[in-house]
Design a protein that fits this description.
This protein has 180 residues and is an all-alpha fold. It has seven helices and no strands. It is elongated.
């Protein structure tokens, strides 16, 4: 299950454009791909909670799922604001309407888009269960959050995937709001 998590994370990296000339994938709704990846990772976290056959792990999995449902709607609204301003939801369209200078970014083209950017970043913290929103129910889990039940190889994959999630979410925010 942890290997599947790592494979999904690295496949998400192939969906992001890292510049105007380095686009591997583009579709009409491509800016929603990081959100779909986050929802998939939350489903894996839910399943891994149930597979550990402990009540506390199952409750953490349910809490992760509930937190993901709560964090999805604000991120979706933030993406809709940016796509509406750009005139489309594909990576090509989002990058075409923005320039290299900050005055040409979507972030500064509308008075509501800085708020949408902040909602997108905080929503990413909720979706990926980062530090302020990291669930823990028992004593050891409150100290270490969702990683309280992991050790060894599983803990290393958990921390690697969490850092990679941060990188991918910040990269998608830069592409969507700050001109790529």
């Amino acid at each position: 299950l942890h290997l599947l998590l790592v494979l999904i994370l690295f496949s998400m990296a192939g969906l992001l454009p890292f510049g105007t000339l380095f686009r591997i994938f583009d579709a009409d709704l491509a800016c929603f791909m990081p959100l779909v990846g986050a929802l998939t990772l939350s489903l894996i976290a839910l399943l891994s909670g149930f597979l550990q056959h402990r009540i506390s792990s199952a409750l953490i999995g349910l809490r992760l799922a509930a937190q993901t449902v709560v964090g999805t709607l604000p991120v979706l609204l933030a993406l809709l604001c940016a796509g509406t301003q750009a005139g489309g939801y594909g990576w090509n369209r989002l990058l075409e309407v923005q320039g290299a200078w900050p005055t040409h970014w979507l972030l500064l083209s509308n008075p509501f888009l800085p708020l949408a950017f902040a909602i997108y970043m905080i929503g990413g913290m909720v979706l990926f269960h980062l530090e302020p929103f990291d669930p823990g129910l028992s004593g050891g889990e409150c100290d270490r959050g969702g990683a309280g039940t992991f050790s060894g190889y599983s803990l290393a994959l958990f921390r690697l995937s969490r850092g990679f999630c941060k990188f991918l979410w910040c990269s998608s925010a830069i592409v969507i709001y700050c001109g790529g």
